[in-house]
Amino acid sequence: MKNIEYALKGFRAPFFKILNREKERFLCPICNYFGPFKDKNTRLHAKCPKCGELERARLQFLVLSKLFENKKLSTNKILHIAPENAFRKLFKKKFISYTSGDMFRKDVDENFDIQDIPFENETFDMVFASHVLEYPDDDLKAISEIKRILKPNGVAILPVPLVHDLTHDRKERHKITRMMHEPGLDYFKRFETIFSNVEIHKAEMYPEKHQLFIYRGDFGNGYPLSLGDGRYSDIVPVCYA
Ligand SMILES: [Zn+2]
Predict the structure, then answer these.
(1) How close is the Cα of 27 to the center of ligand 1, in Å?
(2) What is the pLDDT of residues 135-153, one digit of tens each?
(3) Could you say which of 86, 163, 213, 216 would form a disulfide bridge with 231 (CB–CB 3.0 to 4.6 Å)?
(4) How many Å apart are CA 87 and CA 145, to the nearest integer?
């Protein structure tokens, strides 16, 4: 079923391209499509019409590609939490052993709570969990758990949505977003208390041709990292055990 879905998506991209000849063109680093991208509500040029991936996935993909260029990174075992399909394919190709996990989803290898991960110490070379840490009650416990299961030279990639300048830890879960923690730019300090080194990768550190910015326009009030023209940057933190 998934294969048919992918084939149909691939079929739609050429039509979208013809119908949107006048639109600005970009290069998707994930599927190599070149042409106009689709808008997603207020977010201009957000979605690649071929692979369907969004700004944040494109930035994460570029950061990962850079990491994989580094020969010191061991590609034995990865744990992929709340797995995205595009990265699932990439990780299965790059790593000898691939494990996926999620609290509830059925399409993963293991169901567990990230505050209590059922793996031995120093099991994985990489843990990838994007937009996950804003949900657990005790996010510091979750970050410690990720550090615990990483090998001594392992790396964790833990992006969170940046919604304020300063992080707001909620007393009750947000009714719509379900977040317990609303991350701000200071959120990455939590990683620094647990990991030996944290590298910050910003969208503007990568080529503009990939369209890695989030267009929030008038809806950007309160969001950090404004570029002043309706576009907002994004950050991918890379944490070294
Ligand atoms: Zn694409």
Answers:
(1) 8
(2) 999 999 999 999 999 999 9
(3) 213
(4) 22
What is the 112 CA–ligand 1 centroid distance (Å)? 31
Strand extents, DSSP E, 137-230: 150-157, 168-169, 181-182, 197-202, 214-215
CA of 66 to the centre of ligand 1 (A): 18
Q: How many Å lie between the centroid of ligand 1 and the Cα of residue 90?
A: 13
State pLDDT tens for residues 3-25: 666 666 667 888 888 888 889 99
Q: How far, in Å, CA of 191 to CA of 127, rounded?
A: 14
Distance CA 5, CA 101 (A): 23
- Report how far ligand 1's centroid is from the alpha carbon of 129 (Å): 21
Domain residue spans of the chain: 70-211
Task: Say how many Å lie between the CA of residue 95 and the centre of ligand 1.
Answer: 22
Q: Output the CA 139–ligand 1 centroid distance in Å.
A: 32
CATH of domain 70-211: 3.40.50.150
Burial 29-51 (b: 16+ CB within 10 A, else e): bbbebebbbbeeeebbbbbbbbb
